[in-house]
């Protein structure tokens, strides 16, 4: 199939469509259902990004997948805060609520949730769930698992934000758990579809001690696939086996085992997928797209994403001035970045929140898209408008803007060079500065590592499919991804009003108001929203195409095509 050529995406209004201009054979279809598996519609003139792929019709004895970002560090869910860990743990350890391929959130290990004030939440817990060793999951396991995030000794990577708002977790009935918050939060079930809501077996965690989550001890969970000690061959692969007594018959794994390799070299990944040595992979490397797009032995899919590429301000230097950030956004040809750097699998971002989660909100709150069109600032490529924005700058524009990127990822240099071209049009100097990846990671945790830089790149993603939670993470005073010390009382008040609103439609409106305030200041400069890039060999199918594979048991949907 040849890829349909589309016109460039306009900046406002924007919906879920994406300009896919350069990669031959990229599969797209209309939005599918949120159920596991599901049929992908036939491509048409109005094609949109996929949520699912054609449902598997038969079991598979074994599937060979790949983890593009490499080997996981631990199976411990509270240490799962990155692609390698989450992509695997999502198939093993289940949360109370489960994110679906259409970005809705459904009860899972929890049967229901109830609150009168947004502070006291009562959850019904399933009584028919067993761990892989056959023992029943209890409310005590649920309470223990959530409290692990509150225990400094556990070192949870999820200890801030939502977790910091938890005042108490208690079993209040045989099949009931109550979570009491310090301040109202009507989005809590969404947060419990992430690692925060994952349940592990208390007895095995305590018995494993310091070995918990490593190849020898592993974990004990309730998911459709299980880990058996000895099946993690460090430096090579990890094999997950089907749990035949899984509580949800409809969600039982289609493959008897899924082996996930740790190949990171783009050429090796492309060759492995082309030859069938690797049958599938998420996060297909950009350099591999052209080769795989013309493959005759598999399909390259573009799915609805929750990722975007952005430049984060450190709050220092010329880039610390919001007028400069606004000007650079409008002076950067972000469509050119989407077309060339991302090989057509990106689209110019209009916000720090990617478009697809907002499209899901539109399903339950009709009219929210029009409201965003009215309230969000225009970020379209316009040099004259950029110059006008720059007139409000209050910094010395003769000083260079130093933006850091991981030097091993050359595509970031291409993006920053495009931004530097726009800066030059404004009479500003922007200096892309490569930093070894081993050092670059510290930019997200250590203010000293960021010293001397005006900003740094990120390919970021929403942990839960709720735009409000991401906006809080990025722009609330003192929040976990607020790396510049950004603080605006009006923004804080707007975010607080939204999260404390019980009505879904009204909360969506309040979220748009907060988003508009944040985008006027742009603590992050949004560059491109990114589609999911997934490849599957012709022998397998079923994996969700949308960006849910960090929290949804995607490997359970994998099966044979015949």
From TrEMBL:
<dbReference type="Pfam" id="PF00496">
    <property type="entry name" value="SBP_bac_5"/>
</dbReference>
<dbReference type="InterPro" id="IPR000914">
    <property type="entry name" value="SBP_5_dom"/>
</dbReference>
<keyword id="KW-0732">Signal</keyword>
<feature type="signal peptide">
    <location>
        <begin position="1"/>
        <end position="29"/>
    </location>
</feature>
<dbReference type="InterPro" id="IPR039424">
    <property type="entry name" value="SBP_5"/>
</dbReference>
<keyword id="KW-0813">Transport</keyword>
<feature type="domain" description="Solute-binding protein family 5">
    <location>
        <begin position="105"/>
        <end position="469"/>
    </location>
</feature>
<protein>
    <submittedName>
        <fullName>ABC transporter substrate-binding protein</fullName>
    </submittedName>
</protein>
<comment type="similarity">
    <text>Belongs to the bacterial solute-binding protein 5 family.</text>
</comment>
<dbReference type="InterPro" id="IPR030678">
    <property type="entry name" value="Peptide/Ni-bd"/>
</dbReference>
